[in-house]
Design goal:
- The chain is about 35% helix and about 15% strand.
- It is of the alpha/beta class and about 550 residues long.
- The strands form 3 sheets. An 11-stranded mixed sheet has the order 3-5-4-8-10-9-14-15-13-11-12, sandwiched between helices. A two-stranded antiparallel ribbon has the order 1-2.
- Strand 11, helix 10 and strand 12 form a beta-alpha-beta unit.
- Helix 12 crosses helix 16.
- It is globular, with a radius of gyration of 22 Å.
Length: about 550
């Protein structure tokens, strides 16, 4: 094994380019086989698609170490994210990741593993605080900002033995305006399945899909986890509001925002959820769950759809013909596995009023919540949203190769004009409209005796990088409904899974929306569908001409 590790380290230091890296890193075997050993040769471990259980088995058998695995991912980041296809999914990489992994290997040898995440490399979205790594939330004004502590969910992952590998790029301050996946701190992230397409809101889905890390933790206000999962053919979980802590998050709208996960399989999501789903005194909302299961991964192997009642959200059709066809095929698979599908119509308070509710929440909460986060930033950095806007408009940033997108500047100005948290319309939403919408969705579940709702995660494929969030690129409808509004308004858990592909090879996602705090049941249903559909496939990452970065003189809608 020492020979194998030394060879990998020598190879990693030379960093062969994209195609070479893919061939070299696709599999990682143990030490060369002993010809005298009995039995068939051992199969190589496929790092491109290996799950946590497979990696932990290799750790336990002495065939792999956390340091070797971490160095492999670091080499892949250098060759595919920084060079080669230049996916640009990450803002910062942990320079001490290999050392951290080696320390975890030593701990394993001395006292055993802490749990299933011991030695597993994890990507953290850059709106979650991390020790010894900057947290920018995508804003160039926050470059170099190093928080004094980890976000609660990051601390939980670290305590479980995870290796914090890198920070993922995101649309600046998590705002779904302007170019998707573009920020002044990180530039433009590219979709791994087509470099001319967007990654949705953030780069963590790209990083997991392209095997730059095994897991990712991020945030979701209006699809911030579900969109990246859908367009990158990975599994994503937006938990129930209150299941996971938001402490240490650069906030967008905490009335609907949650922290959640991305992975390449449902079992990996379940193992990570067992770690991060915990009560946190710093986030009183986490006291809401009536009961927290000790395990989310148990029973996934026996998961079944037989007899399960699923409500098909008929309103979410007509956005794109290929999405509609894939959704019909997904329903056929569900029925073939014994699921009972019932057409349901969702309440107007989610369908048509959802955008108004969520837009008003973000516009009203952004200023005061960002101000609270920025209050204790370092000298020379913004201490309020007003200062962040002023610095974003400065010649230093406006004239850089990655200026702040004009639409984001507009969103900051709108937030600064907001009356704030005492606004009567905002208070009416919190006290009346949100509870009414949640009660109406609960009635849909109760009337249909439903285990979950099923819907396409997005009504259109990943958009072109030359278009903004509000464009109808590749959509048959001018302004299709947004399925993400449902779980965000209702505070429900939503699991996103690969369901199919467009003719051009773009991934499409299926969502299961469950009852409050029913994540264990939702994950079991998702695992049953995941095994039946087998829709995930890794990206080929072809070399292709890339669109130019946004310069200060560009029009964002050209």
């Amino acid at each position: 094994m020492r020979k194998a590790r030394a060879a990998l380290q020598r190879w990693a230091s030379t960093l062969c380019a994209g195609v070479c890296l893919g061939a070299a890193l696709g599999t990682l075997s143990a030490a060369p086989p002993d010809p005298a050993a009995a039995g068939p040769p051992q199969a190589a471990l496929d790092l491109m698609e290996a799950d946590i259980a497979e990696v932990q088995a290799a750790f336990a058998a002495g065939e792999l170490t956390a340091e070797t695995l971490t160095r492999a991912y670091l080499a892949r980041i250098q060759a595919l994210d920084r060079a080669g296809p230049q996916l640009n999914s990450l803002i910062a990489v942990n320079a001490h990741a290999a050392e951290d992994a080696a320390a975890l290997d030593a701990e394993r040898a001395e006292s055993g593993a802490r749990g299933p995440l011991h030695g597993i490399p994890v990507i953290v979205r850059d709106d979650l605080d991390t020790l010894e790594l900057p947290t920018t939330a995508g804003s160039a004004t926050l470059r170099g900002h190093e928080p004094l502590r980890d976000a609660f969910v990051v601390a939980r992952l670290r305590a479980a033995g995870a290796v914090i590998l890198a920070k993922a790029n995101l649309s600046e301050l998590g705002l779904a305006v302007g170019r998707p996946g573009y920020s002044s701190a990180g530039g433009q992230t590219r979709n791994p399945y087509n470099a001319r397409r967007a990654p949705s809101l953030a780069g963590d889905g790209v990083a997991v899909a392209a095997s730059l890390g095994m897991l990712a933790v991020g945030t979701d206000s209006i699809g911030g986890l579900r969109g990246p999962a859908a367009v990158s053919a990975v599994a994503g979980l937006r938990p129930s509001l209150g299941l996971t802590s938001r402490a240490g998050v650069v906030p967008t709208a905490l009335s609907v925002e949650v922290t959640g996960l991305l992975a390449r399989s449902v079992p990996d999501l379940a193992l990570a959820l067992e770690v991060i789903a915990a009560e946190d005194a710093a986030d009183p909302r986490t006291a809401d769950p009536p009961e927290r299961p000790e395990h989310y991964a148990e029973g996934l192997a026996e998961a079944t759809l037989d007899g399960i009642r699923l409500g098909v959200a008929v309103d979410y059709r007509g956005g794109n013909r290929e999405v509609d066809r894939a959704f019909v095929r997904a329903q056929e698979l569900l029925r073939a596995q014994g699921a009972v599908l019932v057409d349901v119509t969702l309440p107007d308070s989610v369908l048509n009023a959802g955008r108004d509710i969520l837009d008003r929440l973000i516009e009203t909460e952004l200023r005061d919540q960002v101000n609270a986060y920025l209050l204790h930033t370092e000298q020379g950095m913004p201490h309020s949203l007003a200062e962040l806007l002023r610095m974003s408009e400065s010649p230093l940033i406006a004239g850089s190769p990655t200026p702040v997108h004009p639409a984001r500047l507009g969103a900051y100005r709108a937030a600064l004009r907001s009356p704030g948290l005492a606004d009567l319309h905002y208070l009416h939403i919190l006290s009346s409209r949100l509870p009414a919408a949640r009660a109406a969705v609960a009635k849909v579940f109760a009337d249909g005796e439903l285990d979950a709702l099923v819907l396409p995660t997005m009504l259109c494929p990943a958009s072109s990088l030359l278009h903004d969030y509000d464009s109808s690129y590749d959509c048959d409808a001018d302004d299709p409904l947004q399925p993400a509004y449902l779980a965000s308004v209702a505070g429900l858990p939503e699991l996103t899974l690969p369901m199919g592909w467009t003719d051009a090879g773009l991934p499409l996602g299926l969502s299961l929306v469950g009852r409050p705090f029913a994540e264990a049941h939702l994950l079991a249903l998702g695992r049953a569908f995941e095994q039946t559909a087998a829709a995930r496939r890794p990206p080929d990452l072809p070399a292709a001409p890339l669109p130019p970065p946004l310069s200060s003189g560009d029009s964002p809608t050209q």
